[in-house]
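To: structure desk
From: M.T.
Subject: fold request, one chain
Message: Could you run this one when you get a chance? Sequence is below, nothing fancy, just the single chain.
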Amino acid sequence: MKRYPTTCDRCHGPLNVSIMSKFNTDTICLACCDDEQQAPGYAAASAAEAGAVRRGDYNFPGVGLSTEDLAFLADRRKARGAT
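Reply: Done. Structure tokens follow.
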């Protein structure tokens, strides 16, 4: 039986609703998804993921998080009191 994550890979909060990150294979909560959409590299990550799906790659691992994106997302989590 496949087990689904119960906590967000980014903020470690509970997952009531989740989505896969555009940057990597993290399963994230909606708050982290909102943060991710504001990250500097989001447009490029989203375009790369869409291109992979168009090519038939449904297991695209993402482009990864740059140092700038990691810092941005950490600041956003800190601002909303998440870990």
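Reply (cont.): The CA atoms of residues 74 and 83 lie 8 Å apart. Let me know if you need anything else for the meeting.
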